[in-house]
Structures are given as C-alpha cells and as structure tokens.
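> forwarded from #structure-qc
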C-alpha cells in the first residue's frame, strides 16, 4: 500500500482553506447581503429565493454529471487537477460579480438568476474534482483518517475567517464591506487552489476502460446500498447542520439589535470555529478509541441537547451571551464530529463498491456528498425564506436595507444607520422572534435524528469490514 507523501498531504489539505472561504461567503452571506443592502419587494425577494432553490436543485443534479465528465475525460495533465483549476478561476470571477454588480428591481432579479446559476456550475466543477481526489490519494484507513482530520482543520480556518470576521464589519457600511470581502475571498480561493494543483502528486490508478453514461451513473448509485444509506443520511445531516448558520445573523439582530447583534455573531462564530476545529482536529484520536457508530451516537445526543437548550434561552434559561456561546460550542463540536464521521463513511463506500463489482469510480461516488450538500442547501434556503417572509421579519429588514443604501452614497452616517435600524428591530413582535427560534431548533433535531437512525440500521461498513475490503482488493490486484 503506497504511503502518502507530505507534500501531497499538506498542499491538498491547505487548499481547502480558500475553497471554504468562498463557499461560506456565498452560502452564508449572499442572501443576507441581498436582504440588507438591496431594496426589493417581497415578490422580488421571494423570486430570488425560488431561484436559489431551483439552481441548487439543478446543481445537485449537475454534481454526478460532473463526476461522469471527470471519469470520462482521461486528460494527460491529470484526472482532477485541470477541473480544480478551471472551476476555481471561473467561480472567483462569478463571486466578484455577484457582490459588486447592482442593477435595481427586477433587473437585479434577472442578473442574480444568471449569476447564481453560473456560480453553482463553476463551483461544482471545482468541488467534485477536489473531493474526488481525496479517496484516490490513499486507501489506508489511518492515513485517510489523518488526511480528513488535517483537511477539516483548514476547512474550519477557511469558514471561520469569513463567518467570524465579516458580520462585525458590515453594520452601517454593508455595501462597501461585502464588495471588498468578495474580491479578497475570491482571490484567496484561486490562490489556495493553485497550491493544490501544483503541490499534489496524483496517484496513477487503473482507469475504467469503458466510457460511462448517465445510465451507468444511476447503475453505480443504485447497486451500492451503503452509498444510498450514507447519501440519504448525509443529506438529512446537512439540512440540520446548515440552518443555524444561515439564519443566525437574523436571530442575533432581532434578539440583541443591529450593531450589537453583529458583534455577537462574531463571538458565536468563534464558538463555531473552536467547536468545529477541536472536534475535527481530534477526530483521528477519537476514532482510534471509539467506533464510528459510537461517535455518531454521542454526537447526536449532544446535538439534540444543545438545540433544546438554545430553544429554552430567554424562556427557561436566562438570555445570557455566555450561556448562548457555550450552547453554540456544544452544538458545533458535535456537528463537526458527526460530519467528519460521515465523510469517512461515504469515502469507504468506494472500496465497498470496488470489492463487490471490481470497478472503482472515485469521482462519481464522491459526487454524492456534494449532491447531498447542495440539495440540503436548497431545502434550507427555502425554509429560511419561508420563515422570514411569513413572520414579517423580511419586511422589517427592508427598512434597514434602505438605510444601508443611503449610507453607501454618504447620505447618512454609520451611526445613523445603526440607531435607526435598532428602532426598526424593536418593532418586531415576540411571535416573530419565536418563529425564528422554532425554525432554528426543530428542523435540525428532526433531520439529524433521522440521519442517525438510518445509519444505525442500514450502514454496515464498520472498521473490521473496511479492513477486509481493502485487503481483498489488494490481494486481487496482486
């Protein structure tokens, strides 16, 4: 079994930093940027939300199609590297456009629809090739756990550098702050991916001789019962995992005020960074002591406990900043451990498929993870838009958007924006705030709980079985 060289290991993992900076900017802040800096009617905002859902659904379908393209291309410069580089370059350009070009009204809706579709397709090009490269680098379970652990650390750094710092910078200066952030982050995306392209040594693996079709793709999916169980579970987990971050800024704005809420989002995101980073950095050590099934069980228990505690803040538990951040740390630590375990479990279905059917399809099977993540994002975007519109919070936020537009043209000062925004936020009723809280809490508990049950009952590739699969494949090749 080939040993993974240090240059490949580190340049592959460090490259994740820029990718997740870019993805966090768009997935967490694009609709918030639109909500709080663009003057749009409810119909226009609802149309944009619908566009996001449709584009993400298409993007989810496009993921396995991209996997087929990668499998069939057989390029001399490598199986994955050309797509990694091209996707990063094109996606960086699209990101800059989405946060800098600002038509008005329905013109913006049309521009956004085209831009968001291009963002999804170009990111998919990079995403499928980057994640498809991971299982091809090593089949050694210890090396794979270590690789996923190191990668998780740099993913966390990328996410935190955007999610932690940006919220505290935008209040009263949102239009300019988002534009500058987009240019810097898009440049980082391309720079970090160049490191991966020039640093990683791709493994020469036996290629499947035949050209794969769409029918072949579905055949590969449907024959792999472990991939189905893992894929459905990953979809449900990502639905629950993403909602708190996506709607978090609105929660803090309407619980603590516009400027104060932005500062608290920073602190809460520190907990997100610390919780995720610690759980992912310690995953290899945890996995050496506990089975994957036990890690999932403990993580699920902590997630449910954390969300129930968050629900009770202000009703049973005092609305204290320290308490909220402790709860956030518990939730994010547990979700980080659950996510790392899911990545390993999905990757292990590649060897399961190879052992059973004598074929290896890294890109196509790896696309399931991206497919599930995109589909979960579509569901979450729909849920968030529904909550904001039905509760009436979107209508209140549009008053703040009008203030930010005036600040961008120096009509009013940053202080005036913050003071007036706080006055608008105070008009929100207790029912509106409760609607936000219920959406944040109930959806994750149900989604992640069901994901755990499916994995417990249907997923059978434990540590011993995986070792046997790798041994069988190795002996067959010899």
């Amino acid at each position: 079994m080939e040993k993974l060289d240090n240059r490949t290991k580190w340049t592959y993992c460090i490259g994740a930093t820029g990718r997740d900076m870019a993805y966090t900017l768009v997935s967490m802040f694009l609709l918030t940027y639109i909500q709080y800096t663009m003057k749009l009617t409810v119909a226009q905002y609802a149309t944009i939300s619908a566009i996001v859902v449709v584009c993400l659904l298409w993007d989810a379908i496009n993921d396995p199609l991209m996997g087929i393209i990668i499998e069939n291309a057989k390029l001399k410069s490598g199986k994955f590297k050309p797509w990694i580089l091209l996707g990063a370059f094109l996606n960086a350009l699209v990101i800059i456009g989405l946060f800098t070009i600002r038509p008005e009204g329905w013109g913006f809706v049309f521009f956004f629809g085209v831009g968001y579709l291009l963002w999804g397709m170009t990111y998919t090009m990079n995403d499928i090739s980057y994640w498809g490269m991971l299982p091809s680098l090593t089949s050694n379970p210890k090396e794979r756990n270590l690789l996923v652990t190191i990668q998780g650390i740099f993913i966390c750094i990328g996410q935190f550098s955007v999610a932690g710092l940006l919220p505290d910078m935008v209040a009263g200066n949102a239009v300019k702050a988002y534009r500058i952030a987009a240019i810097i982050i898009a440049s980082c995306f391309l720079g970090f991916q160049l490191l991966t392209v020039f640093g990683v040594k791709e493994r020469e693996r036996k290629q499947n001789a035949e050209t794969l079709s769409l029918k072949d793709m579905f055949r590969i999916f449907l024959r792999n019962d472990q991939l189905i169980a893992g894929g459905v579970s990953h979809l449900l987990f990502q639905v629950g995992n993403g909602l708190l971050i996506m709607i978090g800024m609105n929660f803090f704005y309407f619980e603590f005020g516009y400027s104060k809420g932005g500062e608290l989002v920073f602190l809460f995101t520190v907990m997100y960074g610390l919780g995720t980073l610690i759980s992912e950095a310690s995953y290899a050590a945890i996995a050496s002591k506990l089975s994957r099934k036990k890690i999932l069980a403990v993580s699920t228990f902590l997630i449910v406990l954390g969300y129930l505690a968050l629900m009770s803040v202000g009703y049973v538990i005092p609305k204290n900043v320290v308490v909220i951040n402790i709860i956030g740390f518990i939730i994010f630590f547990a979700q980080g451990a659950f996510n790392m375990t899911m990545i390993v479990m999905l990757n292990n279905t590649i060897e399961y498929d190879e052992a059973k059917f004598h074929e290896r399809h890294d890109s196509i099977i790896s696309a399931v993870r991206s497919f599930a993540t995109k589909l979960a994002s579509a569901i979450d975007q729909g849920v968030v838009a529904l909550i904001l519109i039905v509760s009436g919070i979107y209508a209140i936020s549009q008053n703040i958007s009008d203030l930010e537009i005036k600040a961008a043209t120096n009509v009013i000062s940053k202080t005036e924006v913050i003071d007036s925004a706080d006055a608008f936020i105070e008009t929100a009723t207790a029912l509106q705030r409760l609607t936000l809280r219920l959406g944040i809490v109930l959806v994750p508990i149900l989604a992640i709980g069901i994901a755990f049950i499916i994995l417990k009952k249907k997923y059978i590739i434990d540590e011993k079985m995986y070792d046997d699969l790798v041994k069988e494949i190795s002996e067959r090749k010899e």
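QC bot note: Residues 321-357 form the longest helix (37 residues). Residues 10-199+213-477 form a domain with the Growth Hormone; Chain: A; fold (CATH 1.20.1250.20).
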